[in-house]
Design brief:
Layout: H1 2-8, H2 16-29, H3 39-43, H4 47-57, H5 62-69, H6 73-87, H7 92-101
């Protein structure tokens, strides 16, 4: 029921079992690897943005991130947009892959 509610509210719904498959497929479909963000770009992330990146890597929705970090869902969306811009990425999946590849997936502040 929770997944149906999330889908009805416009949030993406991805089963935990599918996250790894999606990441693998995303990697396989990338014909020319995108230039990874330079360390200087990664250092531009605020501690809060790094927390959000870790949550994205765990496959959490905006609503789940907002609850975990005691933020408004709209604030989470703003942080995600900032992360996308700073790391020159275009999707949540790319952020999740970046987090795993750069050791940000287990970030805890």
């Amino acid at each position: 029921m929770a997944a149906i509610r999330r889908a009805a509210s416009g949030e993406p719904v991805i089963a935990d079992s599918m996250t790894g498959k999606l990441v693998a497929q995303f990697r396989a479909q990338t014909t020319a690897p995108a230039a990874p963000a330079a360390p200087a770009e990664r250092e531009k992330l605020t501690p809060r943005e790094r927390e959000i990146v870790a949550c994205l890597a765990r496959g959490e929705s905006n609503k789940e991130i907002a609850r975990r970090l005691d933020l408004a869902e709209s604030t989470v969306k703003i942080h995600i947009q900032s992360v996308l811009r700073k790391l020159n990425l275009s999707s949540r999946v790319q952020v999740a892959v970046y987090a795993v590849e750069h050791g940000l997936a287990d970030h805890r502040d």
